[in-house]
Amino acid sequence: MLNFQPPSPPLDRVFQALADPTRRSMLERLGSGPRSLGELAEPLPISLPAALQHLRVLEQAGLVVTRKCGRVRSCELRSDALVAADAWISARRAEWEQRLDRLGEHLRRFAEGDPP
Predict the structure, then answer these.
(1) Per residue in 86-108, is it b (16+ CB within 10 Å) or e — as a string?
(2) Which of 4, 63, 87, 116 has the most crowded CB, counting CB atoms within 10 A?
(3) Is the domain defined by 10-112 classed in CATH 3.30.870.10?
(4) What is the pLDDT of residues 10-45, one digit of tens each?
């Protein structure tokens, strides 16, 4: 069993954070504006301490920034952290679209009886 885990690059942390449906739900709610931790946790079937753990993962990934004012922790979405993930996905999408276009052209030629 592997015990050592090297530090995750920022993009890895973003995808790890996005892998959990609870955290995605929290991000969706933050998309409409800042909210308190209590507001984020309210519709979820989890405790406030569990919501705080999820929030910490989102913070470590750079997706959320929080501020504590008295007893209220205010949470805000940092959409710039999603830019790197979107760029990575877009590059993969463009690569696969090119491959599929080449495959489609090859299949068209094959169907018409043209040699490759």
Answers:
(1) eeeeeeeeeeeeeeeeeeeeeee
(2) 63
(3) no
(4) 889 999 999 999 999 999 999 999 999 999 999 999
Distance in angstroms (rounded) separating the CA atoms of residues 86 and 89:
5
What's the predicted TM-score (pTM) here? 0.75
**Which pair of structure tokens corresponds to residue 109?**
């030629």
66: helix, coil or strand?
strand
Strand order in the sheet with 72-77: 35-36, 72-77, 64-69
Instruction: Give me the sign of the Cα torsion angle 17, 21, 26, 29.
Output: positive
Domain ranges of the chain: 10-112
3-state secondary structure of 72: strand
